[in-house]
Amino acid sequence: MRNYPPEVKADAVALYESRPDATVRSVTADLGIILETLRIWGEGCGGKPSSGGSRTQEPAPPPAPLEAVNAALRKKVRELEEEHEILRKAAQYFAGETRR
């Protein structure tokens, strides 16, 4: 069991709080400390890092590039469905030819 100086504890909590996209797990992995340790340090410093995933104060609006990606994927799905239908019809045609 290690004893860390108060400055290290405060710096670790400040690092977590300064990285809004960071999770407690990622910060503890970067620092080489145990997850529970950072949570306890955060409570001691007045903050409260959660014990798990990312922070979710309020839902973020979906980014605009994501809508463009979705549109492109929908277009690709339509194209693949058309190709699949053509191949299905071709398979039916050739299956009929071999029965004769």
Features:
single chain; mainly alpha; 4 helices; 100 residues; 67% helix
Structure explained in plain terms:
The protein has 100 residues and is an all-alpha fold. The chain has a domain at 6-44. The chain has 4 helices and no strands. The chain has helices spanning 6-18, 24-31, 35-44, 64-99. The longest helix is centred in the C-terminal third of the chain and has 36 residues, at 64-99. The chain is elongated and about 85 Å long. It starts with 5 loop residues before the first helix and ends with a helix. The model has no long low-confidence stretch (mean pLDDT 78).
- Helix-strand pattern: HHHH
Number of strands: 0
Alpha plus pi helix count:
4
Shape: elongated
- Unreliable spans are none
Largest sheet, strands/sense/barrel: none
Helix/strand/pairing category: mainly alpha
SS strand fraction: under 5%
Helix content: 55-70%
State the end-to-end CA separation: 82 Å
**Mean pLDDT rating:** 78
Oligomer: single chain
Rounded to an integer, what's the Rg over CA atoms? 27 Å
Q: Strands, helices and their partners?
A:
Layout (H helix, E strand, L loop, with lengths): L5 H13 L5 H8 L3 H10 L19 H36 L1
Helix pairs in contact: 2-3
Q: Quick summary of this structure?
A:
With 100 residues, the protein is an all-alpha fold.
